[in-house]
Write a structure and sequence with these properties.
The protein has 459 residues and is α+β, with helices and mostly antiparallel strands. It contains 16 helices and 19 strands. Bound molecules: flavin-adenine dinucleotide (FAD). Flavin-adenine dinucleotide binds next to β3, α5 and β10.
């Protein structure tokens, strides 16, 4: 409750009266639910939680926090692994109730509020046969994902979520609402596309949409003892992959306790052509699961939701990989053979390259257009008693993978700053872009009001 003493009860009452949405304090009903986020390991207690109903509430929150010198956290979908959506003491600006999605089919565009998840976004846009690149777990928020870059099954064909951002309304640290786009506040627009939540609170995102119909998608899985061969197959498939194919390789345990190597994938193109592309996976033996088939895009987007339930303790470490080399394969298999809990897993994603790599590197703040693979060691457990062992396992696994890393890491997969260290935050933006982002931070948030994120320090 560090900063809370400075705020008088009458100031809190006035603030409450200025909001259309509820303002929750620790003793009130709904407070505990509102402070919960996806990662069950995060247990922070804000002094105040403002459940915003619209931009006016957000403006009042920013002005109140700034004038009372309160620590601020901003919650979109609440999926960030570091738990930056919640703060200890201070004010949590909770946007999760701001859920409107307005699709303009003629312009193939959607205007979306920041509390929307990808399941909600896809549901509305697919009613018109449209979609844009979104995360692969449908409960993830559109807000944090887009601000950090945002990849998913459509990225290799249509670019990142942030590459499809047409404009954003942002409440900056001075309490002004600005529109950022290719023609307005263009420096801010550049920074929002990969620079995370550093520059203000986004109250509305406008996305470019694309025609997306039935896709060929599903999960194939093989026994764990075939993991080295399957990772080799995955490498060969991804080296040759057309832009229409996005996939991952995951060393995971099925709900019945069977350890497997699985490949979730989505091919967005003619089904017969997709069948030909993924044939090597379907003919490899022994094959335990083959769920690949034509399906609605919304189903593909929920394919592996079951492996990522809300409330587990999660500790993740990540890096970009140069390639899927023999060393990568051996290290993945060796660490995944000694997982401390069945939910722990290792993952390589192949969602980059293709269209992402053809966009000018300087066009947006997202820095990694020349890499194709992202690695993650995902420590997961259901009971707090196992937390220490999952943290140790995920850290050791990640360290063992460092010889194969590019040195870079995805902003949205970073843990909190105290754990990762300042150098890793810089590595997530790249040294040159970090400097430019720092100058932008000074312009839009000189006192670092928005610092609970992958924080860029103002210079
Ligand atoms: C299970 C799981 C699956 C994932 N899959 C993918 C994936 O497929 N592709 C991918 O790219 N990423 C993926 N991610 C990472 C994801 O992009 C990040 O966790 C992202 O931060 C989630 O955004 P959120 O709005 O849900 O999170 P939150 O925790 O609410 O916010 C994340 C960060 O963004 C800031 N923020 C949120 N909303 C706003 C806003 N409106 N204005 C300003 N700042 C804001 C917050 O302050 C915080 O720092 C996944 C994460 C998880 C846990």
């Amino acid at each position: 409750m560090a900063n809370q003493q400075a705020v008088t009860p009458s100031a809190v009452q006035d603030f409450k009266a200025s909001l259309r949405g509820p303002l929750l304090q620790p003793s009130e009903a709904g407070y505990d639910d509102a402070r919960k986020i996806w990662n069950g390991m995060i247990d922070k207690r804000p002094a105040l939680i403002a459940c915003c109903s619209g931009p006016a509430d957000v403006i009042n929150c920013v002005n109140f926090a700034r004038s009372n010198n309160l620590l601020v956290s901003v919650r979109g979908g609440g999926h960030n692994i570091a738990g930056n959506a919640v703060c200890d003491g201070g004010l949590m600006i909770n946007l999760s109730g701001m859920k409107s999605v307005r699709v303009d089919p003629a312009r193939r565009a959607a205007r979306v509020e920041p509390g929307v998840t990808w399941a909600e976004f896809d549901r509305e846009t697919q009613a018109f046969g449209l979609a844009t690149t979104g995360g692969q777990i449908s409960t993830t928020g559109i807000a944090g994902l887009t601000l950090g870059g945002g990849w998913g099954y459509l990225a290799r064909q249509h670019g990142l979520a942030s590459d499809n951002l047409l404009s954003a309304d942002v409440v900056t640290a001075d309490g002004n609402l600005l529109t950022a786009s290719a023609t307005e506040n263009t420096d801010l627009f550049w920074g929002l596309r990969g620079g995370g939540g550093n520059f203000g609170v986004v109250t509305s995102f406008e996305f470019q949409l694309h025609k997306i119909g039935t896709v060929l998608a599903g999960l194939v899985a093989y026994p764990f003892n075939k993991a080295k061969d399957v990772l080799g197959l995955f490498r060969d498939l991804t080296i040759e992959a057309p832009d229409q194919l996005a996939s991952g390789a995951v060393l995971i345990t099925l709900p019945d306790g069977t350890p497997v190597i699985g490949i979730p994938l989505c091919y967005n193109g003619p089904i017969a052509e997709g069948e030909r592309v993924v044939k090597p996976l379907r003919t490899f033996r022994p094959l335990l699961i083959d769920q690949i088939g034509p399906m609605p895009y919304t189903s593909a987007q929920q394919l592996i939701d079951g492996f990522y339930p809300s409330g587990l303790h999660n500790y993740w470490k990540s890096s970009f990989l140069k390639e899927v080399s023999g060393g990568v394969i051996d290290t993945m298999v060796s660490y995944c053979a000694k997982r401390p809990t069945p939910m722990c897993h290792g993952l390589i994603e192949h969602q980059l390259g293709g269209a992402v790599s053809r966009i000018d590197r300087d066009a947006t703040a997202f820095n990694f257009r020349d890499v194709e693979y992202s690695f993650m060691s995902l420590g997961q457990c259901a009971t707090p008693a196992d937390t220490e062992s999952i943290v140790r396992w995920a850290s050791d696994f990640w360290k063992a993978m460092q010889p194969y890393s590019t040195g870079g890491v995805y902003v949205n997969y970073l843990g909190d700053e105290a754990d990762e260290g300042a150098d890793r935050i810089k590595a997530a933006y790249g040294p040159e872009k970090y400097q430019r982002l720092s100058a932008l931070k000074k312009k839009y948030d000189p006192t670092n009001l928005f610092r609970l994120n992958q924080n860029i320090k103002p210079v």
